[in-house]
UniProtKB/TrEMBL annotation:
<feature type="transmembrane region" description="Helical">
    <location>
        <begin position="331"/>
        <end position="348"/>
    </location>
</feature>
<protein>
    <submittedName>
        <fullName>Chloride channel protein</fullName>
    </submittedName>
</protein>
<feature type="transmembrane region" description="Helical">
    <location>
        <begin position="306"/>
        <end position="324"/>
    </location>
</feature>
<feature type="transmembrane region" description="Helical">
    <location>
        <begin position="28"/>
        <end position="48"/>
    </location>
</feature>
<dbReference type="Pfam" id="PF00654">
    <property type="entry name" value="Voltage_CLC"/>
</dbReference>
<feature type="transmembrane region" description="Helical">
    <location>
        <begin position="60"/>
        <end position="81"/>
    </location>
</feature>
<dbReference type="InterPro" id="IPR001807">
    <property type="entry name" value="ClC"/>
</dbReference>
<dbReference type="InterPro" id="IPR014743">
    <property type="entry name" value="Cl-channel_core"/>
</dbReference>
<dbReference type="InterPro" id="IPR050368">
    <property type="entry name" value="ClC-type_chloride_channel"/>
</dbReference>
<feature type="transmembrane region" description="Helical">
    <location>
        <begin position="235"/>
        <end position="255"/>
    </location>
</feature>
<feature type="transmembrane region" description="Helical">
    <location>
        <begin position="380"/>
        <end position="404"/>
    </location>
</feature>
<keyword id="KW-0472">Membrane</keyword>
<feature type="transmembrane region" description="Helical">
    <location>
        <begin position="267"/>
        <end position="286"/>
    </location>
</feature>
<keyword id="KW-0812">Transmembrane</keyword>
<keyword id="KW-1133">Transmembrane helix</keyword>
<dbReference type="GO" id="GO:0015108">
    <property type="term" value="F:chloride transmembrane transporter activity"/>
</dbReference>
<feature type="transmembrane region" description="Helical">
    <location>
        <begin position="193"/>
        <end position="215"/>
    </location>
</feature>
Length: 418
C-alpha cells in the first residue's frame, strides 16, 4: 500500500499541483477511476450480451422452466456468496458512513445480476454497475489514504461512471448519481459534482471505444416538433398521468414485497418462486421479459389497442416488482422508461396527438421521476437517450410526476431526508 501511495507522489502528480492550470492531481485520479469504470462496464455489458443471446434461444413454454431454474441459480449464488445488498444500502453508506462501500459483495452482485438480467428479469444493469464501480472508487480512495468528503467524492465518482457508461449521458449520469442520494435536494454533496463529471466523461469514452455503440440516441423516436404554450399544458397533464402510474407502481410494490416477505426458507426459495412467476408472465406477454432496452423501440412501432397496452403496463409493473421483491438483482430505470412509453401508447387511443414522441417521452420522464425521485437528471437522461432537443416541456412533466408522487419513496433510504 505504501508503494501505491508513493506512486501518486511521483513527479507527474507533484507537477499537477504546481502547474498554472486548473488541473490537479485529484483531477487525474478521477479520470483514472472513470477509465477503469468504463472498462469494467464495457466488459460487463459484453458478457451480458453473450449470456442474453445464449439463454434467449429458448422460447414458448420453455421460458417458464428457464426462468424458474434461473431463479434457483440466483438464489444459490446469493446463498453461498453472500447478500449483495441493494441501492438503499448504497445510499445509507454514502450518507451515514462517509461514503464507504464494501467490495466484498461485488462477486455476489456481479454473478447474480448477470444471471438475473440475461435470463429475462425486469431489472437492468445500472444498479449493479453503480454499486460495483462505486465500491471500487471507495477502495481506491482508501488505498490513497483519503477520508471524509474526499472518500465520499471518489465513491460517488465511481457510481457516476458506472451509470454513465450504460446510459451514454455524462451530464445526466453524474447528476443522477447525486440526485438519487436524497429526496429533497437536487445536489446535496456538491463537492462531488465536478469529480462525478470527470469520471463520467472518461468512463463514457472508454465504454464507447470498447463497445462501438455510437453516440446517437439509444431509442429511435420520431423527432418532437416544439409548439407553443400548449406543450407545457400537455406536459403537466402527462405528468399527472405519470404520477398516477407511479402510485399504481408503489401499490403493487407494497403488495409483492409483503407477499415475498412471507415466503419461508432461505433466499433461493423466494428467487425460485419469483422466477416461476416471471416465467408465467413472460410466456403470456413476451414484451415483459428483459429490462426493456431493446423492447422499448418495439413499443413505438407495435400495433395494438388500449386493452393491449393497458394490460402490458400492468403486467410490466407486476414483473418489475416481482423481480425486485423476490430477490432477483438489477435496476429499475430502463424498465420504468418502458412502463412510461407503454402508458403513452395506451393514452393515444383516448387523446390522439400528432406529437406522439412528445407524449411518450413525457410519460417516461414523469413515471421515472415519480418512482425514483430524480426529476432533473431523468429529464437530461431522456434528452440524450431519445434525441429530443427541446426538453424544457419534458422537465415540466418530470416535475409534475415528482411532486404528485407518493411521499413514501420506493427507495426507502430516500425517506430519511424528507
Amino acid at each position: 500500500m505504501d508503494r501505491i501511495r508513493s506512486f501518486f507522489r511521483n513527479p507527474i502528480f507533484v507537477l499537477s499541483r504546481k502547474n498554472p492550470f486548473m488541473l490537479s492531481r485529484w483531477s487525474i485520479l478521477y479520470v483514472l477511476l472513470g477509465l477503469f469504470g468504463g472498462l469494467f462496464a464495457a466488459l460487463f455489458w459484453k458478457v451480458l450480451e453473450y449470456l442474453t443471446v445464449f439463454i434467449g434461444k429458448l422460447e414458448g413454454p420453455w421460458i417458464i422452466a428457464l426462468m424458474t431454474v434461473s431463479g434457483l441459480g440466483i438464489g444459490l449464488i446469493i446463498y453461498f456468496l453472500g447478500e449483495p445488498g441493494e441501492i438503499s444500502l448504497v445510499i445509507d453508506n454514502i450518507r451515514f458512513k462517509g461514503g464507504k462501500l464494501d467490495t466484498k459483495s461485488n462477486p455476489s452482485m456481479a454473478a447474480s445480476s448477470l444471471l438475473s438480467i440475461s435470463s429475462g428479469g425486469s431489472a437492468g444493469p445500472e444498479a449493479p454497475l453503480i454499486q460495483i464501480i462505486g465500491s471500487i472508487g471507495s477502495w481506491f480512495a482508501e488505498l490513497l489514504g483519503l477520508e471524509g468528503e474526499e472518500l465520499r467524492s471518489m465513491t460517488i465518482a465511481g457510481m457516476a461512471s458506472g451509470f454513465t457508461s450504460l446510459f451514454g449521458s455524462p451530464l445526466g449520469g453524474a447528476l443522477f448519481a447525486l440526485e438519487i442520494l436524497q429526496h429533497r435536494h437536487v445536489v446535496e454533496y456538491y463537492e462531488a459534482l465536478l469529480p462525478a463529471f470527470l469520471s463520467s466523461c472518461s468512463a463514457y469514452f472508454v465504454f464507447l471505444w470498447m463497445t462501438d455503440m455510437g453516440i446517437g440516441p439509444t431509442w429511435q423516436f420520431p423527432q418532437y416538433v416544439p409548439g407553443g404554450i400548449e406543450d407545457f399544458e400537455n406536459a403537466i397533464a402527462f405528468g399527472i398521468a405519470g404520477a398516477a402510474v407511479g402510485w399504481i407502481f408503489y401499490g403493487v410494490f407494497r403488495a409483492t414485497k409483503f407477499s415475498f416477505a412471507k415466503v419461508p426458507g432461505p433466499i433461493f426459495v423466494k428467487t425460485t418462486l419469483g422466477g416461476l412467476l416471471l416465467g408465467c408472465i413472460a410466456f403470456y406477454q413476451p414484451l415483459t421479459r428483459y429490462f426493456g432496452h431493446d423492447q422499448l423501440n418495439q413499443i413505438v412501432t407495435t400495433q395494438g389497442n388500449w386493452i393491449f397496452f393497458g394490460s402490458l403496463v400492468l403486467l410490466k409493473i407486476l414483473a418489475i416488482n416481482t423481480t425486485i421483491s423476490s430477490g432477483w438483482r438489477g435496476g429499475i430505470i430502463i424498465p420504468l422508461f418502458f412502463v412510461g412509453a407503454t402508458t403513452g401508447r395506451f393514452l393515444m387511443d383516448f387523446f390522439p396527438t400528432e406529437n406522439e414522441s412528445f407524449l411518450l417521452i413525457c410519460l417516461m420522464a414523469s413515471v421515472n421521476a415519480s418512482v425514483t425521485k430524480t426529476p432533473v437528471s431523468t429529464t437530461i437522461l431522456l434528452a440524450d437517450l431519445t434525441g429530443v432537443s427541446s426538453f424544457t416541456p419534458v422537465l415540466f412533466a418530470s416535475l409534475s410526476g415528482y411532486f404528485l408522487s407518493p411521499k413514501a419513496p420506493f427507495i426507502r433510504s430516500q425517506a430519511d431526508s424528507n
